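Limitations

Structures in this collection are predictions, not experimental determinations, and the ligand pose is part of the prediction. Treat each record accordingly. The example that follows, with uridine-5'-diphosphate as the small molecule, is included so readers can see exactly what is and is not provided: the inputs are given verbatim, and the output is the predicted complex.
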Amino acid sequence: MKIVSIVGARPQFIKAATVSRILRSNPAIHEILLHTGQHYDHNMSDVFFDELHIPRPDYNLEAGSGSHATQTGTMLTGIEEVLLREKPDCTLVYGDTNSTLAGALTASKLHIPVAHVEAGLRSFNRAMPEEINRIVTDRISDMLFAPTPTAVYNLTHEGLAEITTFTGDVMYDSVLFYKARIEENTEKYETPGIPGDYLLATIHRAENTDNPANLRKIFLAFSRISRDIVLPIHPRTRKILQSEFPLPSNVHIIDPVGYLEMLKLTMDAHKVLTDSGGLQKEAYFLGKQCITLRTETEWVETLHDQWNIITGSDPGLILEAVAAPIPSTPTHAVFGNGKSAGLIMEKLLHF
Ligand code: UD1
Ligand code: UDP
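Predicted complex:
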């Protein structure tokens, strides 16, 4: 079976690392990896291929940055060429980025089956570009791999139950697999120069970066927190901070780090503040309370017992959440059993 896996952005490299490892262990599968080039800085792309031993992409379209239409349009033509040449039995797309949408749209128009990993997530907020990407991708896919019971519910509600499988979350597989590796050699994955007691933060969503008022409120809240805050900065956010924002002295900006360093930073943090989808889940899997700097979450399972608290950019709510007690109940496994990638492979082989 020939599969073209389409990736392009940081969280997709992390998901594909786990799925690829399983797919490539099966001689019945020939995987071709297509990188759209949506993310291209060394620490947004290559670092993951090196550290997670992801095979080098067979194709890199170098689509780069641009408006939604420019970026997606460039990907569409590049992906079409590759699919016409490779004639795969199916394509595999991940998550909700413009690379996901471009992959699904191109393949479906060429009548090549599309399998969507992390299907069924909904924020019910169509102002998010990711929400549009998810809805369209799910609608035109042939196999939907849902990571959570809520995702299954959403897809059922949209009339897509017949092509939906609850697989669990490949990011849960990843955390279990790589956490064990970190614990074998914790010092190796420590980020140098980090304070001893800190909150870990990331910010990159359009609703925060494209809205200076929201970003200002978030930094106002950060300035009133007594702990240090470590902030590995997404290039999108760095650009804005360079021009507009004086940084509070307790905020330590660092370059984006590799995945294993990021897991280690999460494991050692007091709490996590983020607008990232992936980091909300990782905090939950690692038993760290998360404060979500958005007004909603797709990962509603993480909200149980206040393991995740939604604050948006409201300084009062952020400060309350930072002061909130850390739950004593353990997080629970609604994200599968850590073997989601194996289930995905079985489904692909039986399609
Ligand atoms: C994209 C996804 C988002 C995902 C995020 C993961 C879409 C619509 N958004 O957002 O869902 O959560 O990736 O990180 O697909 N840039 C660089 N170097 C890079 C990459 C980006 O400098 O290697 C800068 C460019 O100025 C670019 C901006 O970041 O314009 C935004 O990049 P883009 O890929 O368009 O969206 P993300 O914000 O990364
Ligand atoms: N991540 C990383 N280095 C960083 C910041 C994040 O490896 O400096 C990882 C993080 O652990 C998670 C993924 O990137 O696995 C999340 O990606 P991101 O927040 O960019 O996108 P989202 O999940 O919101 O789509």
